[in-house]
Every structure is written in structure tokens, then in C-alpha cells.
Design goal:
Elements: E1 12-14, H1 23-30, H2 42-54, H3 57-65, H4 71-82, E2 87-91, H5 98-112, E3 121-122, E4 131-132, E5 135-136, E6 138-141, H6 144-152, E7 156-159, H7 165-176
Parallel strand pairs: 1-2, 1-6, 2-3, 6-7
Antiparallel strand pairs: 4-5
Helix pairs in contact: 3-5, 4-7
Length: about 180
Amino acid sequence: MRAQEFENKPHLYLDMDGVQADFFTQWARLHNKRSYKEIGDQAAREASIVELNARGPEFVYKFFATLPPLHGGLELVSWVKRNHIPFTVLSAPLRGNEQASIDGKKFWLDKYNPGTSSSAIFTGEKFHYARKGGQSNVLVDDFKKYIGAWREAGGIGILYRDNQVAEVIDQLAQIYGIK
């Protein structure tokens, strides 16, 4: 299929952190932990984000610009591109240092997913893109909060896990009619 063949299909939005880039491992490493879950409970994780922000915009920029890519995410993006499915990166900025995180994410996208940073959308209110012109759009995201809000707004949400990329690709193949 070519891009024009997707005119009447849902638009695809791909998250960056947790789908394409390994935010969580890098976040855990800041605390000398193997998993972000070891940082602590929800309150401890929130405090950790405040601490990340307190390191300043230069640190935040570098943190996002140097995130390691996720193998499954690279595979997913490669599949989407091979099948000529138009997509937009839709990513939430780090609250507190929004511009520094956006600039770091754009640098990352230019390195690992060239051609997407200029059209990428950075917002914590992803659900606003769930529908357009009466058409439900698709979001692939690793965060249940965003998937839930997306679905509530009438979109098609696919929860992503890096070790389940084949299942995500199967779901997308069904949505876009790819055999």
C-alpha cells in the first residue's frame, strides 16, 4: 500500500518514550537501579521526576537526547515505514522542563527516526488527536493512562510492550488491511 491508499484509514500516532526510546531503563540508572519499579512507590517516582527536573534544562536535554532505542520500537517503526503507513510521533514532554525535553526528543528522533521530528507533536493531552473528521485514529503507547483517555475520546488505542511487538504489528496489520 502507498500513503494515498490510507486516506480513509485511521491516522497512526506512535509514542516515543517506552515505545521507541528506553526512558525507563535510563530513569532507573539515574538511581542506580535495574528497574524503574525499584525507585519506589508512586510518590517516590513523582519525587524522582522532580529531582530529574531540578538537575536543569541541560541535563534534561541530554537525558532525552541520549536515550537508548528499544529494539521492538525500531522493528515497529521499520514495519510501519515498509508498509508506507503515514504516522506522527505523539509524545508527552517532561513536565517542569518541557522545552528541554522536547528539544532532546527531537534530537533523538533525528538520530533514530529521521524525518519525524519536524511533524512530531509534544503534549500530555494526547486524547485530543483520537478523532479527526469523524474518523477514529490509532495510538500505540506504553502508558495505560494515555491509552484509556484515547479510547474514551473515541480512538483506537494499542497498549505497547517491547517484548510484544509482533502482537502490535498484527493489530496494525488488521487495522490497515495489510496481509
